[in-house]
Amino acid sequence: MPEGDTVYLAGKRLHAALAGQTLVRGEIRHPRLAAVDLSGVGVTGVASVGKHLFTRFDDGTSLHSHFRMDGSWHLYRPGMRWRRPEYEARAVLEVPERVAVGFALHDLELLPTAEEDRLVGHLGPDLLDPAWGPAHEAEALRRMRARGDHELGLVLLEQRVMAGVGNLYKTEVCFLLGLTPWTLVRDTPDLPGVIALSRKLLLSNADRPEQTTTGSLHPNEAHWVFERGNRPCRRCRTRIQIAEQGAGVYARPAYWCPRCQQGPAPAPTRPRTRRR
Q1: pTM beyond 0.90, yes or no
Q2: Is the pLDDT assigned to residue 270 strictly greater than 70?
Q3: pLDDT tens digit string along 107-123?
Q4: How many whole angstroms separate alpha carbon 114 and alpha carbon 135?
Protein backbone atom coordinates (compact mmCIF):
# COMPACT_ATOMS: atom_id res chain seq x y z
CA MET A 1 0.00 0.00 0.00
CA PRO A 2 1.43 3.43 -0.90
CA GLU A 3 2.89 5.68 1.75
CA GLY A 4 1.18 8.94 2.62
CA ASP A 5 3.73 11.00 0.72
CA THR A 6 2.86 9.15 -2.51
CA VAL A 7 -0.81 10.07 -2.13
CA TYR A 8 0.10 13.62 -1.11
CA LEU A 9 2.22 14.08 -4.25
CA ALA A 10 -0.54 12.65 -6.46
CA GLY A 11 -2.98 15.12 -4.96
CA LYS A 12 -0.60 18.02 -5.41
CA ARG A 13 -0.05 17.19 -9.08
CA LEU A 14 -3.73 16.62 -9.76
CA HIS A 15 -4.57 19.92 -8.09
CA ALA A 16 -2.06 21.78 -10.27
CA ALA A 17 -3.46 20.15 -13.42
CA LEU A 18 -7.21 20.33 -12.74
CA ALA A 19 -8.09 23.00 -10.17
CA GLY A 20 -9.98 25.99 -11.49
CA GLN A 21 -10.91 24.26 -14.75
CA THR A 22 -14.06 22.67 -16.16
CA LEU A 23 -14.13 19.01 -17.07
CA VAL A 24 -14.66 18.33 -20.76
CA ARG A 25 -14.79 14.62 -19.90
CA GLY A 26 -15.69 13.09 -16.58
CA GLU A 27 -16.10 9.31 -16.72
CA ILE A 28 -16.37 7.10 -13.65
CA ARG A 29 -15.92 3.46 -14.64
CA HIS A 30 -17.08 1.87 -11.44
CA PRO A 31 -20.16 -0.38 -11.06
CA ARG A 32 -21.76 1.89 -8.44
CA LEU A 33 -21.03 5.06 -10.41
CA ALA A 34 -21.42 3.88 -14.00
CA ALA A 35 -24.27 6.35 -14.66
CA VAL A 36 -22.30 9.35 -13.38
CA ASP A 37 -21.13 11.93 -15.94
CA LEU A 38 -19.04 14.76 -14.54
CA SER A 39 -18.58 16.58 -17.86
CA GLY A 40 -19.19 20.29 -17.45
CA VAL A 41 -18.45 20.29 -13.72
CA GLY A 42 -15.73 22.60 -12.41
CA VAL A 43 -12.87 21.29 -10.28
CA THR A 44 -12.29 23.44 -7.21
CA GLY A 45 -9.33 21.46 -5.86
CA VAL A 46 -7.70 18.13 -5.03
CA ALA A 47 -6.44 17.29 -1.55
CA SER A 48 -5.09 14.28 0.30
CA VAL A 49 -6.05 13.25 3.82
CA GLY A 50 -3.65 10.55 4.93
CA LYS A 51 -3.90 7.91 2.22
CA HIS A 52 -7.26 9.19 0.95
CA LEU A 53 -7.70 11.55 -1.98
CA PHE A 54 -10.58 13.96 -2.60
CA THR A 55 -11.23 15.66 -5.93
CA ARG A 56 -13.69 18.46 -5.17
CA PHE A 57 -16.19 19.97 -7.62
CA ASP A 58 -18.12 23.23 -7.81
CA ASP A 59 -21.46 21.43 -7.52
CA GLY A 60 -20.68 20.65 -3.88
CA THR A 61 -19.57 17.05 -4.41
CA SER A 62 -16.24 15.25 -4.00
CA LEU A 63 -14.83 12.15 -5.68
CA HIS A 64 -13.10 10.03 -3.05
CA SER A 65 -10.40 7.57 -4.09
CA HIS A 66 -8.05 5.27 -2.22
CA PHE A 67 -5.04 3.58 -3.83
CA ARG A 68 -5.14 0.36 -1.80
CA MET A 69 -2.36 -1.94 -3.05
CA ASP A 70 -2.22 -1.19 -6.78
CA GLY A 71 -4.16 2.00 -7.49
CA SER A 72 -2.66 5.17 -8.95
CA TRP A 73 -3.50 8.42 -10.72
CA HIS A 74 -1.62 9.34 -13.92
CA LEU A 75 -1.52 12.62 -15.79
CA TYR A 76 -1.28 12.84 -19.58
CA ARG A 77 -1.52 15.34 -22.37
CA PRO A 78 -4.57 14.79 -24.60
CA GLY A 79 -3.80 12.09 -27.15
CA MET A 80 -0.88 10.57 -25.22
CA ARG A 81 -0.75 6.80 -24.83
CA TRP A 82 -1.61 5.58 -21.35
CA ARG A 83 1.05 3.69 -19.43
CA ARG A 84 -1.44 1.18 -18.00
CA PRO A 85 -4.11 -0.85 -19.85
CA GLU A 86 -7.37 0.95 -20.55
CA TYR A 87 -9.38 -1.79 -18.85
CA GLU A 88 -7.73 -0.82 -15.54
CA ALA A 89 -9.00 2.77 -15.78
CA ARG A 90 -11.68 3.56 -13.20
CA ALA A 91 -11.88 7.34 -13.64
CA VAL A 92 -11.04 9.72 -16.49
CA LEU A 93 -11.08 13.44 -15.71
CA GLU A 94 -10.12 15.61 -18.66
CA VAL A 95 -9.64 19.36 -18.97
CA PRO A 96 -8.47 21.11 -22.15
CA GLU A 97 -4.74 20.55 -21.58
CA ARG A 98 -4.57 17.54 -19.26
CA VAL A 99 -6.10 14.10 -18.75
CA ALA A 100 -6.12 12.52 -15.28
CA VAL A 101 -6.67 8.77 -15.28
CA GLY A 102 -7.24 6.78 -12.11
CA PHE A 103 -6.14 3.17 -12.53
CA ALA A 104 -7.18 0.20 -10.37
CA LEU A 105 -9.02 2.42 -7.90
CA HIS A 106 -11.18 -0.14 -6.14
CA ASP A 107 -12.57 2.43 -3.69
CA LEU A 108 -14.40 5.23 -5.45
CA GLU A 109 -17.28 7.22 -4.01
CA LEU A 110 -19.05 10.42 -5.03
CA LEU A 111 -20.35 12.22 -1.97
CA PRO A 112 -21.21 15.73 -0.76
CA THR A 113 -18.04 17.63 0.07
CA ALA A 114 -19.57 18.54 3.41
CA GLU A 115 -19.68 14.81 4.27
CA GLU A 116 -16.03 13.92 3.60
CA ASP A 117 -15.54 13.45 7.30
CA ARG A 118 -17.72 10.35 7.07
CA LEU A 119 -14.81 8.63 5.28
CA VAL A 120 -11.82 10.14 7.08
CA GLY A 121 -13.15 11.36 10.42
CA HIS A 122 -11.84 8.23 12.15
CA LEU A 123 -8.26 8.92 11.09
CA GLY A 124 -5.57 10.25 13.38
CA PRO A 125 -3.82 13.53 12.55
CA ASP A 126 -2.46 13.64 9.00
CA LEU A 127 1.33 13.86 9.22
CA LEU A 128 1.39 15.88 5.97
CA ASP A 129 -1.40 18.25 6.93
CA PRO A 130 -0.21 21.74 5.87
CA ALA A 131 -1.79 23.11 9.04
CA TRP A 132 0.12 20.68 11.30
CA GLY A 133 0.80 22.19 14.69
CA PRO A 134 1.00 21.46 18.44
CA ALA A 135 -2.64 20.34 18.59
CA HIS A 136 -2.04 17.70 15.90
CA GLU A 137 1.05 16.43 17.69
CA ALA A 138 -0.76 16.30 21.02
CA GLU A 139 -3.63 14.31 19.55
CA ALA A 140 -1.30 11.84 17.83
CA LEU A 141 0.57 11.43 21.13
CA ARG A 142 -2.67 10.85 23.03
CA ARG A 143 -3.77 8.16 20.58
CA MET A 144 -0.37 6.50 20.63
CA ARG A 145 -0.20 6.40 24.42
CA ALA A 146 -3.65 4.81 24.49
CA ARG A 147 -2.10 1.82 22.70
CA GLY A 148 0.67 1.27 25.21
CA ASP A 149 0.42 -2.52 25.14
CA HIS A 150 0.59 -2.70 21.32
CA GLU A 151 3.69 -3.23 19.21
CA LEU A 152 5.28 -0.02 17.97
CA GLY A 153 5.49 -1.19 14.36
CA LEU A 154 1.78 -1.99 14.23
CA VAL A 155 0.83 1.29 15.89
CA LEU A 156 2.88 3.22 13.35
CA LEU A 157 0.83 1.56 10.60
CA GLU A 158 -2.48 2.26 12.33
CA GLN A 159 -4.04 5.18 10.48
CA ARG A 160 -6.39 5.82 13.40
CA VAL A 161 -3.36 6.91 15.44
CA MET A 162 -1.71 9.13 12.84
CA ALA A 163 -2.25 9.01 9.11
CA GLY A 164 0.38 8.58 6.44
CA VAL A 165 2.91 5.95 7.58
CA GLY A 166 3.17 2.74 5.56
CA ASN A 167 5.44 -0.26 5.83
CA LEU A 168 8.47 1.51 4.37
CA TYR A 169 8.47 4.35 6.89
CA LYS A 170 7.44 2.06 9.74
CA THR A 171 10.54 -0.02 9.08
CA GLU A 172 12.88 2.92 8.71
CA VAL A 173 11.53 4.84 11.71
CA CYS A 174 12.10 1.82 13.94
CA PHE A 175 15.67 1.46 12.65
CA LEU A 176 16.48 5.12 13.20
CA LEU A 177 15.04 4.91 16.72
CA GLY A 178 17.19 1.87 17.46
CA LEU A 179 14.15 -0.22 18.40
CA THR A 180 12.68 -3.37 16.89
CA PRO A 181 9.16 -3.07 15.43
CA TRP A 182 7.95 -5.49 18.16
CA THR A 183 8.88 -3.11 20.98
CA LEU A 184 5.75 -2.20 22.94
CA VAL A 185 4.64 1.43 22.78
CA ARG A 186 4.87 1.71 26.58
CA ASP A 187 8.53 0.66 26.36
CA THR A 188 9.34 3.28 23.73
CA PRO A 189 11.25 6.05 25.51
CA ASP A 190 10.45 9.06 23.31
CA LEU A 191 6.99 8.96 21.76
CA PRO A 192 7.02 12.65 20.71
CA GLY A 193 10.27 11.80 18.91
CA VAL A 194 8.55 8.93 17.10
CA ILE A 195 5.89 11.31 15.80
CA ALA A 196 8.40 14.00 14.84
CA LEU A 197 10.63 11.51 13.00
CA SER A 198 7.70 10.00 11.12
CA ARG A 199 6.59 13.45 9.97
CA LYS A 200 10.16 14.47 9.06
CA LEU A 201 10.67 11.46 6.79
CA LEU A 202 7.34 11.91 5.03
CA LEU A 203 7.94 15.64 4.54
CA SER A 204 11.42 15.07 3.15
CA ASN A 205 9.99 13.00 0.29
CA ALA A 206 6.62 14.68 -0.22
CA ASP A 207 7.57 16.63 -3.34
CA ARG A 208 9.18 13.84 -5.38
CA PRO A 209 8.32 10.26 -6.36
CA GLU A 210 11.62 8.88 -5.03
CA GLN A 211 11.65 7.96 -1.36
CA THR A 212 14.84 8.05 0.66
CA THR A 213 15.53 7.77 4.36
CA THR A 214 19.33 7.74 4.09
CA GLY A 215 19.63 10.96 2.07
CA SER A 216 20.75 9.15 -1.09
CA LEU A 217 18.45 8.88 -4.11
CA HIS A 218 20.46 6.01 -5.59
CA PRO A 219 18.09 3.00 -5.76
CA ASN A 220 20.56 0.76 -3.93
CA GLU A 221 21.29 3.30 -1.19
CA ALA A 222 17.92 4.90 -0.42
CA HIS A 223 16.90 2.85 2.64
CA TRP A 224 18.57 1.63 5.81
CA VAL A 225 16.86 -1.75 6.19
CA PHE A 226 13.60 -1.76 4.21
CA GLU A 227 13.57 -4.59 1.65
CA ARG A 228 17.21 -5.37 2.52
CA GLY A 229 16.61 -8.71 4.21
CA ASN A 230 19.74 -10.90 4.52
CA ARG A 231 21.97 -8.05 3.34
CA PRO A 232 24.54 -6.33 5.57
CA CYS A 233 23.44 -3.44 7.77
CA ARG A 234 24.71 -0.12 6.43
CA ARG A 235 25.96 0.81 9.91
CA CYS A 236 27.39 -2.34 11.46
CA ARG A 237 27.42 -4.91 8.62
CA THR A 238 25.30 -7.38 10.61
CA ARG A 239 22.89 -9.29 8.39
CA ILE A 240 19.44 -7.67 8.22
CA GLN A 241 16.67 -9.95 9.48
CA ILE A 242 13.14 -10.27 8.12
CA ALA A 243 9.93 -11.62 9.66
CA GLU A 244 6.22 -10.97 9.35
CA GLN A 245 4.48 -8.60 11.72
CA GLY A 246 0.72 -8.57 12.12
CA ALA A 247 -1.89 -11.24 11.46
CA GLY A 248 -3.88 -12.34 8.44
CA VAL A 249 -4.42 -9.73 5.73
CA TYR A 250 -2.69 -7.16 7.94
CA ALA A 251 0.61 -9.04 8.04
CA ARG A 252 3.54 -7.13 6.58
CA PRO A 253 7.24 -7.99 6.30
CA ALA A 254 9.36 -6.29 8.94
CA TYR A 255 13.09 -5.72 8.53
CA TRP A 256 15.52 -5.01 11.35
CA CYS A 257 19.17 -5.11 12.34
CA PRO A 258 19.61 -7.37 15.40
CA ARG A 259 22.62 -5.35 16.52
CA CYS A 260 21.52 -1.76 15.91
CA GLN A 261 17.94 -2.26 17.14
CA GLN A 262 17.10 -3.26 20.70
CA GLY A 263 13.93 -5.03 21.82
CA PRO A 264 11.92 -8.20 21.26
CA ALA A 265 11.84 -9.94 17.90
CA PRO A 266 10.56 -13.25 16.54
CA ALA A 267 12.68 -15.87 14.86
CA PRO A 268 13.67 -14.47 11.48
CA THR A 269 12.44 -15.95 8.22
CA ARG A 270 15.03 -18.25 6.79
CA PRO A 271 16.41 -17.18 3.42
CA ARG A 272 15.45 -19.43 0.58
CA THR A 273 18.15 -21.80 -0.59
CA ARG A 274 18.77 -22.47 -4.23
CA ARG A 275 18.02 -25.89 -5.59
CA ARG A 276 20.77 -27.39 -7.61
Answers
A1: yes
A2: no
A3: 899 999 999 999 999 99
A4: 23
**For this structure, is 244 an active site residue?**
no
Strand partners, 99: 76, 94
- Closest alpha carbon to 258 in 223, 222, 227, 232: 232
Active site residue 209: no
pLDDT in tens, 170-226: 999 999 999 999 999 999 999 999 999 999 999 999 999 999 999 999 989 999 999
**Does the annotation count 170 as an active-site position?**
no
Which residues make Cβ contacts (< 8 Å) with residue 247, sequence separation at least 6?
A: none
Of the residues 239, 252, 258, 268, only one is catalytic, namely 252
How far apart CA 193 and CA 207 sit, in angstroms, is 23
- The active-site residue, picked from 27, 51, 151, 228, is 51
Scored b (16 or more CB within 10 A) or e, 47-56 reads: bbbbbbbbbb
